Amino acid sequence: MSTRRAISSLVVAMTVMVSASASAQAPAAGQTPFEPQVGQAGKDVVWVPTPQGVVDKMLDMAKVTKDDFVMDLGSGDGRTVITAAKRGARAMGIEYNPDMVDLSKKNAEAAGMTARATFMKADLFETDLSKANVITMFLLPSINMKLRPTILNLRPGTRIVANTFTMEDWQADETATVTDGCSSSWCTALLWIVPAKVEGTWAIPGGDLKLTQTFQIISGTLGTQAVQGRLHGAAIEFTAGTTKYSGTVEGNTIKMTAPSAMTATKKM
Ligand SMILES: C[S@@+](CC[C@H](N)C(=O)[O-])C[C@H]1O[C@@H](n2cnc3c(N)ncnc32)[C@H](O)[C@@H]1O
After folding, report:
1. Which of 176, 193, 210 is the last residue of a domain?
2. CA-based, 20 to 30 A from 226: which of 53, 84, 187, 252?
3. Percent of the residues in the chain that have a pLDDT greater than 70, as a whole number
4. At what angle are helices 79-86 and 98-110 packed, to 10 degrees?
5. Residue 15: DSSP 8-state
6. Rounded-to-integer distance, Cα 104 and Cα 96, Å
């Protein structure tokens, strides 16, 4: 079976499990200790844990450090949040299932990470994502697509890392398949960096810079020369003719550092 077909089958399986198990009853509090089951019901997607090797790879790709605030959307048993906290980051899990939230808190306590790993019982669609500079997720393709407009409006440079599922025509900036520590079907990590918005006309020494933008890919003209380039968050680079330009987008200005220091100003 091709990878594409295998992934499609798994998406169908995950989706079917949502409806099949949606009516399953969690044991009443105080009776049997809660034991999560792979495939158990979730509000919009069932629980399937990300293999630890993929969690590690996702956090590596996002270059998570102590300076980051990481949010895991649909945080399951808390493994991604706890791993990010072990790297020194502040991390918060958003999880709809209260039993999973309690379990995550216990797991964070066992790992000695309660100071930096926190969990909120909430719906990921009703959560303010703007404070995070790293967002992690293992959801369904349809949920990624529903979140995409919100994600694209986050601060440029926000890193998004996902297990396996894409954001369709928004190509990932980086993709990696994990073989060490991953023997399941969910072994691909994807990274996107929220690009600054640059579409429009910019006044720049040398002529008008006219840009069109498809996510992180830019094209257009500078004077009479064709422009091709890309964004890495707020960092911009493009070639016009044989000249390479690079700089940083700061709202309605671009501070160019190459080929020489200059400022481009957005024309309104
Ligand atoms: C596939 S699991 C991923 C768990 C964890 N992020 C990981 O990678 O191991 C998806 C999780 O999302 C939770 N979930 C489903 N719909 C949700 C929603 N609307 N808001 C918050 N959590 C949700 C499920 O309960 C489940 O724990």
Report:
1. 193
2. 252
3. 89
4. 30
5. H
6. 12
